[in-house]
Write the structure tokens for this entry.
Amino acid sequence: MLGYMIRRILYAIPILIGVNLITFMLFFMINTPDDMARAQLGAKQVTPQMIEAWKTEKGYDKPLFINPKASGLKKLSDTLFMQESLKLFMFDFGVSDANRDIGRDIRERMGPSLAIALPTFFIALVTNISLALLLVLFRGTVLDMSMMIIAVMIMSISGLFYIIAGQVIFSKMWHWVPISGYEPGWGAVKFVILPVLIGVFAGLGAGVRWYRSIFLEQINQDYVRTARAKGLSEISVLFGHVLGNGMLPILTGIVVVIPSLFMGSLIMESFFGIPGLGSYTIDAINAQDFAIVKAMVFLGSVLYIVGLILTDISYTLFDPRVKLS
Amino acid sequence: MRVTLLWTDMMVWVLVIALLAWGWVISRSPQVKKQWHTIFRSGIAMASAIVLLFYLCFALLDSVHMRFSAQEPVHQESSKQSVRYDGEMVSLLDLLLSQAIEHTERTYSAPFATHEYTKSVIVGKDGVTRQAYLPLKYVKHTAGESVAEDILKKSFTAILSGLAISLVLVLLHLAWNGQGPLREKIRRLLRGETALPWRTAYLTFTLLLVSFVWMYVLSHSYHVLGTDKVGGDVFYQSLKSIRTGVLIGSLTTLVMLPVSITLGISAGFFGGWIDDVIQYIYTTLNSIPGVLLIAGAVLVTQVMMDNNPQWFETTLERSDLRLLFLILILGMTSWTGLCRLLRAETLKISQVEFVTAAKAFGVSQWKIIFRHIMPNLMHIILISVVLDFSALVLAEAVLSYVGVGVDPTMYSWGNMINQARLEMAREPMVWWSLFSAFIFMFILVLAANLFSDRIQKVLDPRNNL
């Protein structure tokens, strides 16, 4: 188990290097430091001296991949790529264009992001699974079919519609909750409740359909027939057998996204003015602040890889047939 | 007049030709033909296919662009407009809806309104300023009649002519389709005794055509879906957005399919280091959060386009180039899912007896791939293409909201929503832009989702009918 874990973590390193290479190519090769300097300085008459000064100040004055001036190992290490990637691997994200420490910003903004993402995730999980079980219990009936049609319709409406409609109805017309904003502590509840409910509802269609198909696959298995033959009621078959065995495919689907919850939701946070990582990213994209976008890309990949490892571990915990090797 | 095709126009027509070629290929295989017959036996699938085709028609109409030279007058009756068209590209759809382009008001107006939505300050003859709702410039209704009467009258003729047109088209199709006397065919159609649910198809078609003709006729004298902040006709905008939505949904597939099919099959079939490399590539790409990867790539192309203004002459070409880049980026980021599915399925098929037998007979590897593996992957490809289509149409709106979607000057549902969103605080609310964008998008995505459901039901071997 421990050996496997170590191997998995080591396997993550080439992937993270690959991620770094992609972001580096995107942000430094196509869009060279000279372009960045010109865009940042903004003025019409930018002299080469000004560009050089800006590059030195930001530390972008080194060659991209190979440094011909240095000797030995320094040829590879004293370059922009190594400098940028090493910093990221140490989780040192540098400073943003507004001269703020990105690492501290991220730590501060994680809380509000989780305040939306965690409740949405767990409430959605419970609602989707219970509704799916209900539909499986009534499979083939009018209830099942009409609910499936409603599910397709929920899926087909743009998520932006739910947000806008929710804000108009609950905040503007009925004044139940404030339209946007955030405050730390328990005061956050009134700001968080609407985005969470909208998030749960928007995912309902796709979620219920997915869980229902998982349970339906189980219901035709032999063990279910055996359980029925033993005289178990349909409900205890569902909860005792189908739900348990359906957990395995469900786990693969959900464990991988749990770490990514830290990243927050871009759309939800920016619509509701929540100072989380999602709105942080959107603001950075709009301001073309490449340092923040780069940091968020790296963070996102790390969290995704953690999710993959967690999935493997949860397999061994829940399915004794799976042996990690 | 000179026909000029933009980059994306060319890609659309390549896609259409590819689709036709594929249709011709499958029409020669009786087995595949039977599968498609089964798919269309469902009324819902038939209706959604008609809706999709309807949208596709608008996208195609909007994908033939032309330029009018400065000498030629554009229309006989409105030759003064030729100055505006000079050097500008217009599509066939623009020509069809030219009245909507000309009828640009000053500001917001509600659907079928006769006056502007907001009061403006006017100076009366006596020099006193007061606030009033100004009448709209291009709304004409017959004098001496109330607006409601006028709308009713015009709707009546419009709906009748819509019905007449669709009746003619349906009868033409009926006469062309199958053998036997026409009277007998109509009788069977009305009773719903046809092999395919043509009755549903014709009904859907009539419904779509009549509603389009109705809106089109009324759009000559009213703004059927209102106007936006700068007075642009929302009906026109919604129709123009169809091209953007359909293109992003379908062309991305055109970009993505070759990559995911080649890499997926090679990884599954050849195994070894090829498999390792391909798996490494898609795990790496997958691990980058999708929106961020797209956002990063779009930001970079934006900088690139700003540095190379010689790539495009007009704003239309500029926005088209941006759409092309967006499609390429979406294609490059979305192939991983299908690739993984194809790899797993190829691995499974490679172990089956008929492939082992072919290998033992010394059939070449390429022949095995094209004869034995590709046909067995078709259902996975098809299902994921249609599912991706609806996901991409929805994604366009979100990306435009984030600011990394299509060019802000381009008509798209995302841009419409994005602009209308700022008016939410207005009291009373300006709802029609949002509403139209959502409805147009909803119908397209719903049709795609229902169609993909049916395909999945028929083609997926795990579902036995």
The interface with chain B takes residues 14-15, 18-19, 22-23, 26-27, 30-31, 35, 39, 152-153, 155-161, 164, 167-168, 172, 217, 260, 263, 266-267, 281-282, 285-286, 288, 290, 293-294, 296-297, 300-301, 304-305 of chain A (CB under 8 Å).
